[in-house]
């Protein structure tokens, strides 16, 4: 009974006691992939920014220590790689979605 109340609050018009409810509001696979990529970008980009700020802090706090500078450079490098992966995945998703719409 609780499941039915929750689904009623979300606007889904089906009875989970009688049938399997589809909670996905997208109609095509391309729309689902676009929503997933958008969510990954919304979560991933702030993490990339935080890691870039953290690497800047590591550069400043290194104070000439070679080991700390090496760690700061590595953190910066992987933060940039992570940012490129997030942006690249989003761009590929948009390209696939646009291609699928043309079919």
Outline the structure in words:
The chain has about 100 residues and is mainly alpha-helical. The protein has one domain. Helix content is about 75%, strand content about 0%. It has three helices and no strands. It has helices at about 1-10, 30-60, 65-100. Helix 2 (about 30-60) runs antiparallel to helix 3 (about 65-100). The protein is elongated. The model has no long low-confidence stretch (mean pLDDT about 85). This is TrbC/VIRB2 family protein. It comes from Candidatus Giovannonibacteria bacterium GW2011_GWA2_44_26. InterPro entries: T4SS_pilin. Keywords: Membrane, Transmembrane, Transmembrane helix.
Question: Keyphrases for this structure?
Answer:
single chain; 103 residues; mainly alpha
Order of helices and strands: HHH
Regions with pLDDT < 50 over 5+ consecutive residues?
Answer: none
Task: Report how far apart the termini are.
Answer: 43 Å
Kindly report the average pLDDT value: 84
Sheet/helix structural class: mainly alpha
Cα shape: elongated
State Rg. Answer: 22 Å
How many helices in DSSP terms? 3
Strand content: under 5%
Please give the domain count.
1
Helix percentage: over 70%
Overall number of strands: 0
Write the layout of secondary structure elements.
Layout lengths: L1 H8 L19 H34 L3 H37 L1
Helix pairs in contact: 2-3
Summarize the structure.
The protein has helices at 2-9, 29-62, 66-102. With 103 residues, it is mostly helical.
């Amino acid at each position: 009974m609780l499941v039915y109340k929750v689904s009623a609050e979300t606007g889904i018009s089906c009875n989970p006691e009688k049938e399997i409810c589809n909670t996905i509001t997208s109609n095509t696979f391309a729309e689902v992939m676009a929503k997933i990529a958008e969510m990954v970008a919304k979560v991933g980009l702030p993490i990339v920014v935080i890691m870039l700020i953290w690497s800047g802090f590591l550069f400043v706090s290194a104070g000439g220590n070679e080991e700390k500078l090496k760690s700061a450079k590595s953190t910066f490098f992987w933060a940039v790689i992570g940012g490129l992966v997030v942006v690249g995945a989003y761009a590929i998703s948009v390209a696939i979605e646009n291609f699928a719409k043309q079919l």
